[in-house]
Amino acid sequence: MLFFDIRSLENHAVVVDEELSNDDPVWLAGDPKPVGAVHVTGRLSAAGAGRFYWHGRIKGDVVLACSRCLTEARAHVEDEAHLIFAESGAEETDDPDVYELDPRADELDLRPAIREEWLLAAPNYAVCREDCKGLCPRCGVDLNAGPHDCSQRDADPRWDALNKLGSQH
User: Fold this and answer.
1) Per residue in 25-58, pLDDT tens?
2) What percent of the chain has pLDDT over 90?
3) Does any domain span residue 128?
4) Cα torsion for 21, 55, 60, 97, to the nearest 10°?
5) 50-64 confidence digits (pLDDT tens)
6) pLDDT at 166 over 90
7) Between 38 and which of 20, 66, 80, 92 could a Cys-Cys bridge form, CB atoms 3.0 to 4.6 Å apart?
């Protein structure tokens, strides 16, 4: 689990070697969800009264739509993170990089911070392969499937104005 008893953290650090499942409720609709679990490793320790520090790594794979041909593209996500958690009201909580803790909380939950680190580390774009040819700009056929002849198809008349501009140069 990625939940830790705050009272025990005040006395000794803990080594984190866990997985955050891709079906965990921390993931929201629209997130680039991991293919499998995200492997989370690191060390969580006290950093003063009401403050905690986690230094660790996250690793996993994500599936996105290829930015050229729209088929499935897989990317590896790996990132190192340094996170600070502080009780509400501490001066550090003004910093957007500090995660705020409820002073009455008994547990520190790493999952929301791990999700945020994942979102920052996951690529916005991916390609299915380096030599991906993409889609035909005229008819939209996947050019990776092989040669095709779309010249006999009627062109979409909405492109006529752009075609005229292109032929002028």
Assistant:
1) 999 998 998 999 999 999 999 988 888 999 999 9
2) 59
3) no
4) 80
5) 889 999 999 999 999
6) no
7) 20
- What is d(CA 50, CA 104) in angstroms, rounded to the nearest whole number? 11
**Count of positions (residues) in the chain:** 169
User: Residues 142-157, buried b or exposed e (16+ Cβ, 10 A)?
Assistant: bbbeeeeeeeeeeeee
Number of domains in the chain: 2
Question: What is the full DSSP assignment across 116-143?
Answer: HHHHHHS-S-B-SSTT---B-TTT--BG
The residue segments making up the domain with residue 101 are 3-121
Q: In this structure, what are the phi and psi dihedrals at residue 157, rounded to the nearest 5 degrees?
A: -65, -15
The H or E element spanning position 111 is helix 111-121
Considering only residues 152 and 98, tell me which one the structure prediction assigns the higher pLDDT. 98
CA 76 from chain center: how many Å? 10
